[in-house]
Amino acid sequence: TSFTPSGPVTLSSNQTVTGLAISNSNGPCIQGSGVSNVHIFNNKIGPCGATVDGVGIIIQNNSHEITIDHNAFDNVASGLYAVSSTNNIVFERNFVTRVRGPYPRGQMVQFNGVSGSGNRISCNVNDETTPGYLGSVEDHVNMYNSFGTAASPILIQYNKLRGGGPSVSGSGIMLGDSGSSYITAESNILVNPGQVGVAIAGGHNNKLLNNKVYSASFPWSNVGMFVWLWNPSEPACFSHEVVGNRVNFIGSNGSA
């Protein structure tokens, strides 16, 4: 595919963005606020600004009906940062490399205050080195203060996630952060994903189903999987399901 060079893109509702090589030395490559019915596909995204603002895509302020697919992200603070948005935020079939942070960025995808139905992260590849690039990946996928519904949980499915460290707080897939609930992580494959593989840190009605997690031992290695209300000031942790996962994870002390 031939890509047309482009500077940063500010989204409008009912817009399609395709066929571009988008970069920005001073901030996000693509941003939208309060937009809907947007399709972003078949683009090269990055490098984006060198600070925490240099995300590939940021959507916020009640944005909804956003589909992001078949893009290549490289050299970004995070791939997608979705903030205070609602229904049908879809990130699928994208290829992501050199997620660099620094913290609090450093995710392939982070939902922050996303709610409603039809939200999913599926069939993506995040291929990082071990240790990661510059500030490095934090959580490959992080669900912060975000809520699906009983009928339509947020779905994190069929992703392949590799690489992490040296962060001692990073993970592959983190559910339940700040009480996030009704989220399902299913049939993902994680290799050397960081300090933790897959986890539920709070909330309710979250599921870890049929994931495969492997890690060799690194100085930052902790555990392959946990369900743990690590911050007792956050909402209670209950009604979770952990079924059918396969974990082979070696801690920093060399023990499984």
Briefly summarize what is shown:
With 256 residues, the chain is mainly beta. The chain has strands at residues 4-6, 9-10, 16-18, 20-22, 30-33, 36-41, 44-45, 57-60, 64-69, 72-76, 80-83, 89-92, 95-99, 109-112, 120-122, 125-127, 139-144, 154-157, 160-162, 171-177, 183-186, 189-191, 196-200, 207-209, 212-215, 223-227, 241-243, 246-249.
Shape: globular
- The beta-strand count equals 28
pLDDT < 50 stretches = none
Instruction: Enumerate how many helices there are, as a single number.
Output: 0
Order of helices and strands: EEEEEEEEEEEEEEEEEEEEEEEEEEEE
Oligomeric state of the chains in view:
single chain
The secondary structure category is mainly beta
Structure description:
The chain is mainly β. The chain has strands at 4-6, 9-10, 16-18, 20-22, 30-33, 36-41, 44-45, 57-60, 64-69, 72-76, 80-83, 89-92, 95-99, 109-112, 120-122, 125-127, 139-144, 154-157, 160-162, 171-177, 183-186, 189-191, 196-200, 207-209, 212-215, 223-227, 241-243, 246-249. Helix content is 0%, strand content 44%. It has a ten-stranded parallel beta sheet, with no helix packed on it. A nine-stranded parallel beta sheet has the order 2-5-8-11-14-17-20-23-26, with no helix packed on it. The N and C termini lie far apart (45 Å). The relative contact order is 0.10.
